[in-house]
């Protein structure tokens, strides 16, 4: 028996005692989110046995085919989090509009934003998926009796908590409440998340990057420059070989980066110019940016820090570059150099980025 391990509830209560700025029922709200993740973990792990795989036969607000598990996971969050009295409203990838807490339940001072099943195209092939969540306070001028979408449109720097559950070989919960990042592993025998990874820190240096390379021809020059330098390895200006990974599940990529460093890019591209990026700001980029920042990494659009982006709509997309600090800063510099004209590949055949004469 594993007596003495800290479960997530004990962790939250201690955290709340340490940080009086987290008022009222905050830890109970996270406990409700944790219960949602346990329920989703159960559905994901039973897969075909539970008849939950396959398409729902509808599209979500993003125009993406909804999986049955997308819908079930969304319902799990609503079911476990709507009645506790901690929330005024919720918003998710799977719902076009916000979900105000129904009037039969008390309403609280927090807002919950979530992606109930991120990377869900992986689910039918039995690969890792996850849930991502972010907790915001209702703004001062919010009418708790009639919350509106604008109440959610706060920069990521105002998040009070963020986390994800990774449904992988084991189920893990990774959480920050603004003072470091903690990883818990689900012990299925006792149904509890136990603290297994205290104080996660991302190493500032890395030799590993993750990007969907099939989009290369659509990338902007700073990203093309960065990736081509990584690919050049020891023979190029980086002077070291890089490894590349792509799971196509953001939760799994961020988790790998928390465990062993690395950089993840889903940058702006020209594949569909109506979209400034693929990933969603409120329930993918912001919570991951808070986690990565709390673990000493960095998250950027290439042009500004993700946590500073002022949201204009609930389902807004944003370019995402996150992970090991030195790499993200380098990629930000490449964006700056491109914009100021310092980096103009191919302008001069002798002195451009791709010639023998460049030596930085
Ligand atoms: O929508 C989110 C997502 O599934 C992420 O989890 C993942 O990083 C990305 O999309 C995968 O994109 P692609 O289909 O281009 O590989």
UniProtKB/TrEMBL annotation:
Select a single GO molecular function from the record's annotations and give it. fructose 1,6-bisphosphate 1-phosphatase activity
Which cofactors are reported in the record for this sequence? Answer: Mg(2+)
Catalysis performed (reactions): beta-D-fructose 1,6-bisphosphate + H2O = beta-D-fructose 6-phosphate + phosphate
Gene Ontology process terms (BP)? fructose 1,6-bisphosphate metabolic process; fructose 6-phosphate metabolic process; fructose metabolic process; gluconeogenesis; sucrose biosynthetic process
**Keyword Cytoplasm included in the entry's annotation:** yes
* Locations listed in the record: Cytoplasm
Involved pathway(s): Carbohydrate biosynthesis
Q: What is its EC number?
A: 3.1.3.11
The record describes its quaternary structure and partners as:
Homotetramer.
What this protein is called in its record is: Fructose-1,6-bisphosphatase class 1
The scientific name of the source species is Candidatus Accumulibacter phosphatis
């Amino acid at each position: 028996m594993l007596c003495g391990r800290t479960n997530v509830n004990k962790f939250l209560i201690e955290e709340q005692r340490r940080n009086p700025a987290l008022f009222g029922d905050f830890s109970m709200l996270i406990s409700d989110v944790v219960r949602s993740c346990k329920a989703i973990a159960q559905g994901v792990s039973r897969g075909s046995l539970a008849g939950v795989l396959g398409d729902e036969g509808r599209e979500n607000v993003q125009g993406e085919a909804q999986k049955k598990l997308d819908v079930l996971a969304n319902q799990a969050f609503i079911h476990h989090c709507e009645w506790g009295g901690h929330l005024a409203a919720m918003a998710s990838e799977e719902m076009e509009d916000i979900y105000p807490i129904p009037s039969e339940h008390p309403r609280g001072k927090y807002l919950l934003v979530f992606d109930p099943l991120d990377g869900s195209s992986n689910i039918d092939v039995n690969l890792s998926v996850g849930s991502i969540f972010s907790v915001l306070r209702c703004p001062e001028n919010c009418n708790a009796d009639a919350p509106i979408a604008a109440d959610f449109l706060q920069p990521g720097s105002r998040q009070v908590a963020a986390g994800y559950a990774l449904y992988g070989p084991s189920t893990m919960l990774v959480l920050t409440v603004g003072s470091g990042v903690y990883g818990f592993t689900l012990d299925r025998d006792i149904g509890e998340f136990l603290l297994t990874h205290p104080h996660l820190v991302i190493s500032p240096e890395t030799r590993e990057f993750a990007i969907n390379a099939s989009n290369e021809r659509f990338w902007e020059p700073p990203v093309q420059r960065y990736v081509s330098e990584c690919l050049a390895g020891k023979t190029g200006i980086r002077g070291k070989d890089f490894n590349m990974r792509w799971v196509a599940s953001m939760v799994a990529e961020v988790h790998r980066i928390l465990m062993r460093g690395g950089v993840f890019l889903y940058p702006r591209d020209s594949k569909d110019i109506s979209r400034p990026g693929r990933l969603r700001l409120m329930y993918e980029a912001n919570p991951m940016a808070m986690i990565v920042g709390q673990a000493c990494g960095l998250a950027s659009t290439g042009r500004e820090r993700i946590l500073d982006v002022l949201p204009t709509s609930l389902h807004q997309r944003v370019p995402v570059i996150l992970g090991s600090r030195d790499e993200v800063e380098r990629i930000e510099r490449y964006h700056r150099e491109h914009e100021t004209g310092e980096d103009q590949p191919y302008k001069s055949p002798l002195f451009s980025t791709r010639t023998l004469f460049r030596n930085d």
